[in-house]
Design a protein that fits this description.
By secondary structure, the chain is of the alpha/beta class. Helix content is 43%, strand content 20%. The strands form 2 sheets. Strands 1, 2, 3, 4, 5, 6, 7, 9, 11 and 12 form a 10-stranded mixed beta sheet that branches. A two-stranded antiparallel ribbon has the order 8-10. Strand 2, helix 2 and strand 3 form a beta-alpha-beta unit. Helix 1 runs parallel beside helix 2, helix 9 runs antiparallel to helix 10 (257-275) and helix 10 (257-275) packs antiparallel against helix 12. The longest helix has 20 residues, at 236-255.
């Protein structure tokens, strides 16, 4: 049996995808693997590059962008590995990363899923674990308390900013850029919820793993470089709206309609703060992205009633 099935969802990240695949091919030495790339109707020639330069990769070429969860599910339904690695196209594994992560899962029979340490391209630590979101943590975010008091165990608890990521621990959520799941547990818990087009699908999946009694682990033993946002940089306004719509979906699914309604009120407060008082910050920045972000929150404010 194949040790690990590596699944990469791609949407117009041809160059990043090629680098991602080369990193896998050059660094995996001890375990057997197969690679699936699910292409969500890219217009940049990604499928042609795959067919020409990576003939061993199993390509699933969609004619429409079906979203992150559904695309991953397409490959998970047919892959053969003992473990399933969901890997972003803008994530570049290092020497021994995948080999060591398979050994880690073999040594932790209780683990349903595990993630490794993620780094930005310049080597800085990238926060990649979180607690499950709650109304309280969203209030902290709305008022910026999570950033102002990031070292607090109370205000920083959602993104676990009081932690240095230097020890193995069970966490609620790991980032979808690198998620190594036990295939037999996936069959028990189920595939990703395709109601989530993009964002929060990994939070939902981790929630269901935990509910089924399968812990999600983080280990700092190995590292992966993650650029963050390889597919979404070009659609910043839509990305922001999708992010918060998906968060509302998560609240509604797991906490009920009343909590989801209360969350939408918190989200309105969040947007109003950034559209009103926050305008002073955004419009005094030299970075042109700041004004775009202000406009994105204006659009978000208009979209919230439809969430």
């Amino acid at each position: 049996m194949t040790d690990v099935s590596i699944i990469i969802v791609n949407w117009n990240t041809k160059d990043l995808l090629a680098k991602c695949l080369r990193c896998v091919q050059e660094t995996v030495k001890q375990v057997s693997y197969e690679i699936y790339v699910v292409d969500n109707a890219s217009s940049d020639g990604s499928p042609d590059v795959l067919r020409r330069d990576f003939p061993d990769v199993k390509l699933i070429a969609n004619t429409d962008n079906v979203g992150f969860a559904r695309a991953n599910n397409q490959a998970m339904r047919v892959c053969q590995g003992r473990y399933i690695l969901l890997l972003n196209s803008d994530a570049f594994v290092k020497e021994n990363t995948i080999d060591a992560m398979v050994r880690f899962m073999d040594a932790h029979a209780d683990a349903g899923m595990a993630g490794c340490k993620l780094l930005y391209e310049d080597g800085r630590l990238q926060p990649s674990c979180a607690m499950f979101p709650t109304l309280l943590t969203e209030v902290f975010i709305a008022f910026g308390l999570d950033k102002l008091l990031s070292r607090s165990k109370i205000f920083g608890r959602y993104m676990m900013t009081d932690w240095d990521y230097n020890d193995v621990r069970v966490v609620d959520v790991i980032m979808g850029a690198f998620m190594l799941a036990r295939a037999e547990v996936v069959r028990q818990v189920g595939l990703m919820d395709e109601a989530f087009f993009m964002y929060s699908e990994e939070v939902d999946w981790c929630y269901r793993f935990k509910a089924a009694g399968w812990p999600v682990y983080f280990t700092p033993e190995v590292e992966t470089v993650h650029l963050w946002g390889g597919s979404s940089k070009a659609v910043k306004v839509e990305t922001l709206i999708r992010l918060y719509r998906a968060r509302t979906q998560f609240f509604r699914k797991h906490y009920g309609r009343l909590t989801a309604f209360l969350y939408k009120i918190v989200l309105v407060i969040n947007a109003l703060i950034r559209v009103g008082p926050g305008a002073l910050y955004y419009f005094t920045r030299s970075n042109p992205d700041a004004r775009q972000k202000h406009g994105a929150f204006l659009r978000l404010l208009a979209a919230i009633p439809g969430f």
